[in-house]
Amino acid sequence: MNIYIHKFLPLIISPLFFVFFLLVCGLILKSRKISIIGIIFLIFFSLPIISYKLNMYLQKDYTPQDVSNINNSDAIVVLSGMVSTIEFKDKIKYEFEGAVDRILSGIDLLKYNKAPLLILTRSKLPWQNGIPEGEYLKDFSIKLGIPEESILLTDNVQNTDDEAKSVKKLLNKKNAEIILVTSAFHMPRAQKVFEAQQIKVIPFAVDFKNSKKITFLDFIPSASALSQSSKFVKEMIGRIYYEFKY
Questions:
Q1: Which member of 134, 196, 216, 224 has the lowest number of beta carbons within 10 Å of its beta carbon?
Q2: For residues 207 and 184, what is the distance between their CA atoms, to the nearest angstrom?
């Protein structure tokens, strides 16, 4: 039940829900002013220029790094969140999404001997099909030349907090140090959660959003921009939550 609450709360505070709330209030109260405010909010959060600035803010504390410049540690931890499943003809196909840099960078770090172990997380939500993501990533890593004995899998996990606790249990060591690999927008929250488990973190942020030139197209509302703005709100809620928790 906790995971449903954890995933449901950001939806309630999302830009789309807020706009929907204003429009409904406008209809019920027969207030054109409230409805117009709702439409203005919808346009604002649907502007690519706005979603771009918001998401650049999420990754502002990190820059791309070269694998060779990273210090050695006890383990490389790659967080889940890069695989989707497609079900057809009673079969499940696994496909990588934009955050595939997570596993590719983790493999590179291991091949550069930055740590003796690659830890992958068995992430799976109740409504997801197929095997936990870490199990698929383990097979993928082995195909790319990583020895099976160099890979560890966590317990089944459902969020970043679970991942950190499970990694802590796997390492079973005081003053453990890891190279943490996740998307740049997610790294501040992830680093805080792992450090709360008394794990020293060397952040290796990947999956950066491209800087780009601003054009007139960035001032035309789009569904994609609204989705990215919602992603920003979700991530900020997560940061605030763990700021109070830890």
A1: 216
A2: 6
pLDDT tens sequence across 182-191 = 999 999 999 9
Q: Among the residues of the chain, which ranges form H helices?
A: 2-12, 15-28, 32-45, 48-58, 101-111, 133-143, 160-171, 187-195, 223-245
Q: Is 145 helix (H, G, I), strand (E, B) or coil?
A: coil
Give the 3-state secondary structure of 197-234. Answer: CCCEEEEEEECCCCCCCCCHHHHCCCHHHHHHHHHHHH
Tell me the CA distances in angstroms from 47 to 22, 218, 225, one per residue in order: 19, 6, 6
Query: For residue range 11-52, what is the model confidence (pLDDT) as tens digits?
Result: 677 888 888 899 999 999 989 999 999 999 999 999 999 999
- pTM given for the model: 0.89
User: Looking at the predicted structure, is the pLDDT value of residue 108 above 90?
Assistant: yes
Q: Are 104 and 145 contacting, i.e. CB atoms less than 8 angstroms apart?
A: no
CATH number of 67-206: 3.40.50.620
Q: Helices 15-28 and 223-245, interaxial angle, to 10°? A: 110
